[in-house]
Amino acid sequence: MESMNVSEMSVFFGNALKNIAYEMAGVELIDTVPGDIAAERKFSVIVGIVGAHKGRVLLCMGDNFVQKITEEMNCGKLDSLTDTTLYIGEFSNILIGKAISQINNACKTFDLRLTPPAIFSGKRMRIITPELQSSILSFTSQFGPASMDVGFERCR
Amino acid sequence: MDLKNAFNTAVLELAGIFGVAAEYKGDVVEPVLSSANEVNVTIGLSKGLKGVVLLGMKRTTALKIASVMAGSELTEMDECAEGAISEFMNTLVGMGLGNYKTAVQVDFSSPTLIVGDEMYLMISRVESSRLQFMFDNEPFCIAISIE
To answer: Is A128 within 8 Å of B115 when comparing Cβ atoms?
Structure first.
């Protein structure tokens, strides 16, 4: 039986975020110690994972980071918060999908699949999710911070 | 009883249990499941029904509900209030699904609470029904989105 723990899986997600942010928007992310994202407006995306392991990835980003990514994706400014929300949801879907494909290639019995992303944005926003065995990855960039919380219900 | 009526009945029953005046104000169908409320709780449905139930309200409404549940007046969204609101949603979804008579079992996830100011939530691009209530004279809504 193939197995992988949460930390091992989180490496795939962290690398996917770094690679996709660089490839799509030229944003270089550097690993840093976990801490609160200090931006006034924050964006969060939750993508559920189903298959042999159930879990979720919670991606949190500051507004400058989101603005840079979404403007690069659109090749120009976006008119509304709804558009920004949809673009950042798609960005998250792409990178989490990439990580899931790599995990499935490494452990074929996992057969992990994604649920559509739920995207939240707000000022002084807090998200309280059920406690899971999770691994937190934090990054910094010239456009502000980003963090990822990768959690699974049951995992080695 | 259909799902909309099942949840409508559940809200009114739950309000009755807590001794709070609740009034159904109607419902609207929306092309997506979104919210701009300050306090939101989501629960995912799986197995017999796949979808999401969203509870949305103002901070003042959440504090009123949390105070009734905690048995003492709560003035800020602290851990106690967050726990009470999550439990309220858990009970509401349990009662709603209990009222919805179906041959297949429906599972529901633990609640996720999202609190903040100037919020915008895009939870699903599946059509949703938003049931609107006045709960102790405060607006309150339940949105149900089934795939």
So the answer is: yes
